[in-house]
Amino acid sequence: MFSEAIIIPVIIAIIEILKGLGLPKKFAPLVSLVLGMLSGIFYLDHPELKVRIFQGLIYGLSAAGLYSGAKNTLEEVRHRRKYVK
Q1: Which among 52, 61, 10 has a CA at the least distance from the CA of 34?
Q2: Burial of 35 per CB tally in 10 Å (0-12, 13-18, 19+)
Q3: SS3 45
Q4: Sign of torsion, CA 39 28 11 60?
Q5: What tens digit of pLDDT does each residue of 42-70 get?
Q6: Are 14 and 35 in contact (CB under 8 A)?
Q7: pLDDT band at 81, cuts 50/70/90?
């Protein structure tokens, strides 16, 4: 069985695939949350459902934030390079 740490990159990859297939960018965080909850419910093995849902929400929020943070950082770097040259 895979480590739980792989859930976040998998969610990000699925979101990127869905965006490539036409998912509007504004719905990406919502889909990330849903995928996180589903992964928590069906993948994690904690005996309590509410704990699995909560952990799934954390994974979905982390995936959305990780993607958003990386995207914003890259945009800032590109913006600064544009004005430095």
Answers
A1: 61
A2: buried
A3: coil
A4: negative
A5: 988 889 999 999 999 999 988 888 766 66
A6: yes
A7: confident
